[in-house]
Specification:
The protein has about 190 residues and is of the alpha+beta class. It has six helices and eight strands. The chain is about 45% helix and about 10% strand. It starts with 11 loop residues before the first strand and ends with a helix.
């Protein structure tokens, strides 16, 4: 469930954005428009979480999700977001860190190799969330932690894993936020001349 090759898969799948390069970071993008007065909840109903698991490539078919699972997923999402934000600012988020540790301590899902040599995970929704929490911990506390970035767009809060050779990626997506920034800069320079 760790970093995956996203070059072959579209960034937008089944109503979700996958620009983070890591499922734990992509989970944080399920609350869209965080900076607006009313953010858009992409995990509005239990079935949405099942769809996210499929779109993320974690399971081949949507599991049965209960309301308690959805609440845990939202809490995990916000915990990952808080720990990621705190890490980038050199701070600590003790309650979010505890939440990640608590969810990760639950039984996790079991990786399975399918006929196409793809990894899928088997287990309850709670076990799938535990696996996402474990992956978040391994990312945010591991050697790639320094490569976790937040999009530099003034209107975007998506976190991503910078896998560029130089380690200088600025936007969650060149096709999205990066292109918009370049268009704004072009217009600014044209107006200034």
């Amino acid at each position: 469930m760790t970093m995956r090759d996203e070059t072959k898969r579209p960034e937008e799948r089944d109503g979700f954005r996958f620009r983070g390069g890591h499922n734990a970071l992509d989970l944080t993008a399920t609350l869209a428009a965080r900076l607006k007065p009313v953010p858009r909840e992409r995990l509005a109903m239990p079935a949405d979480l099942g769809r996210w698991f499929v779109a993320a490539g974690i399971v081949p078919s949507a599991p049965d999700v209960e309301v308690k699972d959805l609440e845990e997923a939202r809490a995990l999402r916000e915990g990952i977001f808080a720990v990621s934000s705190a890490r980038l600012s050199g701070e600590d988020a003790p309650s979010a860190r505890k939440l990640l540790n608590d969810i990760a301590a639950k039984p996790s899902s079991v990786p399975q190799l399918d006929a196409n040599a793809a990894i899928k995970f088997d287990g309850t929704v709670s076990a799938l969330l535990s696996t996402v929490a474990r992956e978040a911990i391994l990312l945010l506390g591991g050697p790639q932690a320094g490569r976790v970035r937040q999009c530099e767009s003034a209107t975007c809060t998506i976190f991503f894993l910078d896998t560029s050779r130089a380690g200088d990626r600025r936007w969650c997506s060149m096709a999205g936020c990066g292109n918009q920034a370049k268009v704004r800069e072009f217009r600014r320079r044209k107006a200034a001349s």
